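Agenda item 2: magnesium ion complex prediction
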Amino acid sequence: MPAYAVIGGQWGDEGKGKVIDYLAGDVDSVVRYAGGNNAGHTVVNEKGTFQLHLVPSGICWPDAYGIIGNGVVVDPDVLVHELTEISGRGIDTSRLYISERAHVIMPYHVVLDRYEEEARGAAAIGTTGRGIGPAYMDKTGRIGVRVGDLLDWDALVPMVTKILEHKNAIITKIYGGEALALTDVLDKCKLWAEQLKPFAQPTEQLIQDLLAQNKRVLLEGAQGTLLDIDHGSYPYVTSSSPSIGGACTGLGLNPQAISGVLGVFKAYSTRVGGGPMPSELHDGEGEAIREKAQEFGVTTGRARRIGWFDGVAGKYSQLVNGFTGLVLTRLDILDGFKSVKVCVAYEVNGERLDRFPANTGLLAQCEPVFEELPGWDEPTASVTELSQLPKNALAYVRRIEELVGCRAQIISTGPRRDETIQVEPVFV
Ligand code: IMO
Ligand code: MG
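Presented output:
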């Protein structure tokens, strides 16, 4: 059976956790391919509300395997904490596997994330402070420590000794900070080796075997396309590849194995952290959406910036990912608005722009061209059939489909699994 990807179409926080959980009942395995514990995926089920940062959201289903692929960066302390917490709440965590090629977020990565952000001053990215950027920098800089390295103590000690010398020089000489003690870092590595050993696997082979056995694999995206290191609003991005290409490199999976690419979009826009967001609202309407939707970060608790749906960015996201279906989430939040707006183009220096620009300075100058659509009074909240949607809500969905250039396969009308409209089947 083939693999299906679920990818954030915007700036993250699109509701991927709910979508993965909704689909995971019909799959054999849920696999994370990028990012780390900068992600915050919320799953609501009969056991309560789960906020997962690293463990694939499919773990909440009793039969699905959870796999953390090579493209993910793993903070073992966070992983162990998360596993302890969810197993304490009745979730079976014995079906989790971690790629031995996945990179480890080391203690100095978290320290450096903070110093680097401080040094950026007014141009701060607003990172989650979890060491994500520094860990990926070391990966591409070829001085990373991988899960497999933790398991080879004799090779690890000289490796970490050398790396730490270099990191401590940066921490003390550039940032005037305090050096990390080698013994502390090695002690951590020793503990992590014991903790991670039962999970470490050649996961590319595992995924290949699952597919060969006709098992269905769901690829769980983290972050969103507009935060992609290559395709996002650089440098206000994360350091990995949340878009579809990242799913292949982040798992060792060939593109032919992927039959469906679902793009998850919120019915409006949010962004947390710095960087341009052309359709951002700075008025009471944005505040109203934030309060109603409780748009505060799962990972950092920060208030999310709010905007209307950005059709220009959506079309670009479609171009990068080739979505085969859309998932529109949080439509219910717009219930009761007199009118709703969508951004259909940008305007910059008096000229109309229909494409998402690569130049982030230019993107920051873009003013949104809004189209206003009539709102709806009847609730979409908890609706489960397309035919039950208020006429204007359906017209809004159709307009978004048109702007992005892809049909909606799922519409989410609330946080629970059953608050979902399955417009058409996802798995074919
Ligand atoms: P999920 O999976 C929203 C943002 C941060 C910051 C930028 C870089 O829940 O959609 P990083 O710590 O990755 O170096 O921060 O990326 N960011 C997210 N925003 N949802 C996420 O994940 C995010 N992960 C990172 O706020 O602007
Ligand atoms: Mg998040």
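Discussion summary: The pocket of magnesium ion (ligand 2) is lined by residues 12-13, 39-40, 297-299 (CB under 6 Å).
Owner for follow-up: CH.
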